[in-house]
Amino acid sequence: MTVSDFIDPRPDFPEGDVDAQAAYWAAVLGSDRCRPAQRKSFILWREASAQNRAAYDTLIATLEASDGVRNDPDILALRAGALGQGVNARRGTRNGLRYGLAGIAASALFVIGLGGYQAGWIPAFGSGPVMQTASADNAAPIHLLTSVGERLTRTLPDGSTVEVNTDSEIRVVLADQAREIYMLRGQAIFDVAHDADRPFMVYAGDRKVTALGTLFEVRLDEASTQVTLLEGKVRVDEISLNDPDVAPIASAPVELSPGERFVSAEEAMTQVTPQTIESDLSWRQGRHIFVDAQLSHIVSELNRYTTRQIVLNDPAIGELEASANFKLGSTHSLAAALEANFGLSVTDDPDRDHIIIDW
Q: Is 135 a member of any domain?
């Protein structure tokens, strides 16, 4: 067994246990899907308390005492990646990281944290500083986390409101100069309290969204960042990844007006109809609402809210169109509707926790 067997690229953040939190950050930073916002969030966590810093120092000392683990190929690859050398760790079977591990595999991962921090590989976020001085609003970052199918609404100390959708992770830093939000994954709506002296900035993927007194949505998927403006005005900037393998920034800032949407993967801004916005934001009411949507899209959206997945056995089924209105994550409601309205076959696969849809 190698260190790769302990790496989970997207574990849930363990509240309360500083050693477990250190292991969490090691797993995140060791993933080849680690994003700039996650890297900066790690720095914020490490600098938040002496206890956090001590957890790294202790575990690094353990690593230094073990030549066998220091020379593990996975560790060497992870260290190279952390230092910006463009090397990703080999991937083995992901059994998930157990944060309480006292064994050497967990300690070995911590080389990523301190090594990357000292090497200065945290990406450049526009012209702003890497760290902001905490304000009276909040002395430490606020961590917002939802599991699959869960949603939450949080009013921040500055009066802004964040509605967080399923399977999302966000960190909030309220400082004297700016309010910085780091979207690590998922989807959220931000209702921003006006404060001209402290811009409200959301970092998601390779984009920074800046707003003053605005209501907007940000969705971060594996390949793209999507920003939809509901009220007010926002500006979307591309941010440097500070990575030699990434081409220099070429795109100009994009300013959105209400009803407009920007999708980074397409580098395009489009006007969104009220009907589309109602459908896309129906999760706020705990519903799925679709109008003349392809089944592939309907199934993909529903699967975000449940561990019991619907699988279309033939891509041609996904091209069928339907309108629907049902409870979030209700796989059986959708399966029953597909069987009744399209005559499709519905089969349970309990071993894989799937519902198979076929002709």
A: no
